[in-house]
Design a protein that fits this description.
Blueprint: H1 6-26, E1 39-57, E2 69-80, E3 83-84, E4 87-88, E5 95-100, E6 103-104, E7 112-118, E8 122-134, E9 136-152, H2 154-157, H3 185-195, H4 204-218, E10 226-228, E11 234-237, H5 242-246, H6 253-266, E12 271-280, E13 285-296, E14 300-304, H7 306-309, E15 335-339, E16 358-359, E17 369-382
Antiparallel strand pairs: 1-9, 1-17, 2-8, 2-16, 3-4, 4-9, 5-6, 5-9, 7-8, 10-11, 12-13, 12-15, 13-14
Amino acid sequence: MSINDPRKLIALTVLLATVLLSLAATQDSPSGRPPMGPLQRVDPRIYDFGITVNISTTWQHDVTRRQYYNIKDAPIVMPVIFQGTYSRVPSDSLWAKLWLDGREDRNLNERTRVDSGFPYHTHLAVMTIPEFKGQTVRWSLGYRIQLWSSKIDDAMAANIPWPREWPNEVKDGLQRQMFIESDAPIFKETIQRISEGQLRMVPPYLAAKDIVKYCIANVRVSGNSEHRGYGGMLHGLHISGALKATSSNTASANDLVCVCVAMLRAAGIPARPVIGIEKDIKNNRKEFVSWAEFFLPGAGWIPFDPNEMRGKGIANKTVHEPWRGFGTIKDLNRRIPLSYHFVPPSSVESPQYAAVWGWDPRPGGDPSSEQIITFKMTSRGPGVEDEQ
């Protein structure tokens, strides 16, 4: 079937219309609109982005034999943030490709859809493998994206009071999710102890700073945030989760993000992790990175990076002083947000290591798999400034 085939054009038109209708509802929601009040987004930049995931079965104990995937109607799920506080993806720039044992699936568009209705107006691009018995599956997903950096007026943000009720669109930021066990008693107990029961006597912006400061001081981060194999090949993220990090002597950078989000949620402040990629100029490679955001009425989702703040003298600063990496993040326009979940918020899983994507290989089951992930991030220059 060629691109000129009317059936394919109709399918693509319906898919695009569905995405556009969903995005229209997102524009005015707290999860997708630009920041306001004390919070600004500045210095827009445009990139062409692509992620490629290659999974392959591993050798059995008898090295002369290798396992096979034996699957039918298996969905591969990739999150897409079309409209974030500091990012925007044109829906018509989305593309996807699939290879099965090295052979490209030319009919993928007929079995690709974009689902909506997930927390924070996240969309899930779903690519379905109709039937396959083999050893390697590879797919790519990409789009054009505009990013902004963030800037905040600390004094103005500190004057915003606690709301009577949080907007419905941000209440998912108060719930437990995979790796963020915010309903565990230890987090509530810790909030009660460090606030001495006076949490609501402090404006939410200052309370959030105090909580993040505590997490940075009490979570020992060591090792890498990524798992890389031979030749530096990227396999996924190192993550144990917020609860395990509280009882461990060591935690990854991702775990520190999870602890911060869990503590904020336990304090009644909506918060979410952000998992993305950025170009590491020092190593000249693109890598996973995570940071977080919490919601402040009259401002929006405020970004903060606890790992950027580590070792920057935060322990000796008061909550009334501006902190680098809290609200103001100059390099946010070099970080592409992929997801607000380490594994998609649906009934899927990631083999080997969490890496924002997921799939359901039933009925054939998921044999032992190895995954290799690569990114492409090409700068297309300055973006379009927001209208004042």
